[in-house]
Amino acid sequence: MVGGNAFDVLDAIFAQTLKSRIFVNRDVLGHEYVPNELPHREEQIAKLGAVLAPALRGSKPSNVFIYGLTGTGKTAVTKYVLKRLYAKAAELGVDIITCYANTRQDDTTYRVILKLGECLGLRLPFTGISTAEAYRRFIRIADARSAIMIIVLDEVDFLVKRHGDELLYRLTRSGEDLSHTKISVIGITNDLKLVEDLDPRVRSSLGEIELVFPPYNAIQLEDILRQRAKLAFYPEAISDDVISLCAALAAREHGDARRALDLLRVAGEIAEREGGPKVTVDHVYKALKEIERDRARELIVTMPLHSKLVLLSIYTLTRDGGKVTTGEVYAHYKSLCQALGVESVTQRRVSDIVSELDMVGLINAQVISRGRYGKTRIISLAVSADTVVEALKDDPYVGRLLLRD
Ligand code: ADP
Ligand code: MG
Questions:
Q1: Start and end of every Cdc6 C-terminal domain (predicted)?
Q2: Which one of 119, 198, 276, 348 is least enclosed by Cβ atoms within 10 Å?
């Protein structure tokens, strides 16, 4: 029977997972999970809580601007404080509306307004009315509620960069349009330079209160992981050395708790797949490789053709472990363009592409001086050659070149 084998394979996989004694609850290591304890954010929680508390007495809280690098707990802290505030308001019978929108997901001004409407039970049409009209309807319904509305615009740098700060401007001045309801805005950004892109009036009203989330150090990350590991794993399946290693590896980047949790989760998944009784340090190193490979792969497959060709040149010239200069890369790149029959870009542009590849961590490009010959860059791959080929193979053009040699 044809299906017989597949059936047995699945049976084996199911049985493996069911008898595994690694995870009690893997979901608590997922990105969406908001824990009830947030170690090392007591100060930010207290400050945000103090800013928002007046809402419980019907006063409009100050607007807040929150910034910090990715994985420093901005979203988790904000959601946690709002959840607690909402619960307290319900207990007291005070009408507080909390509304969360992530502008990387709801990526136009219109979509954000749709989301704000949803928080009020207002179903705005997806199309057919102007943004200004949608905003007017939102304001009308909001005002009819006579409540305090707290709006979180998470990753707001995405909205501002693509569509400007008009909505922020409107919301922070909404007091002029409202008679009964009061709106406060919490803007969150990973991009510390965002402030420079804002209209000075938005900057001053949004930045009434500023909250900074510094990166975690390795010891803090350990505490975060330990607390989460207690919920995620069977006690016998996890050990302190595994947690310390995940924390140390994530601290090496910039103290990103998300990276640390990812490492722990993937290490657990690998342990489960291998059918072992516990997560080991070895699993963590494997997880690191797997995560880096996936990240590199995602970067590569979405690159434009000429970036891929430059990367292919670097790969081809360095795969025996060597290093190359920008000039050598350019010469090779040109021959690839010729082979494909596409027009090449200038050496200047190739040099920029090299910088871009360096910046996203796919290659290392080190500037060295060559005396009177000026400066050049010595380039090598920063990720494994296998990862590069695997990802480049998927491109129809570049794949053809790879088949050639
Ligand atoms: P940011 O929004 O700053 O990018 P997040 O709030 O999404 O970061 O945090 C990333 C991940 O790390 C989430 O899963 C979050 O629950 C967790 N996390 C961050 N800070 C803490 C903390 N202090 N304690 C427990 N978990 C945390
Ligand atoms: Mg976030």
A1: 311-392
A2: 348
Our answer on whether the CB atom of 131 is closer than 6 Å to any ligand 1 atom is: no
Q: What is the pTM of this model?
A: 0.83
Q: Decide if pLDDT at 34 tops 90.
A: no
Tell me the residue type at 320. Answer: D
End position of a domain, from candidates 170, 186, 213: 213
Tell me the CA distances in angstroms from 14 to 160, 222, 306, one per residue in order.
Answer: 46, 32, 44
CB count within 10 Å of CB 223 equals: 15
Report the nearest-CA residue for atom 11 of ligand 1.
258
Name the binding residues for ATP. 72-76, 216, 228
Same domain, 63 and 201: yes
The first and second tokens of residue 129, run together, are 């009315």
Taking alpha carbons only, the member of 310, 290, 309 closest to residue 384 is: 290
Average pLDDT (236-258) is 93
Relative to the CA of 72, which ligand 1 atom is closest?
Answer: 3
Q: Quick check: 274 and 13 in contact, CB under 8 A?
A: no
Query: Which segments of 115-260 are extended strands (E)?
Result: 148-154, 182-189, 209-213
| 375-381/324-325 β-pairing | antiparallel
**% of the chain exceeding 70 in pLDDT:** 98
What distance in Å separates the CA atoms of residue 389 and residue 392, rounded to the nearest whole number? 5
Q: How confident is the model at residue 65 (pLDDT cuts 50, 70, 90)?
A: very high
From the CA of 256, the nearest ligand is: 1
- Does residue 328 lie within any of the structural domains? yes
Which of 189-198, 261-270, 373-382 shows the highest mean pLDDT?
261-270
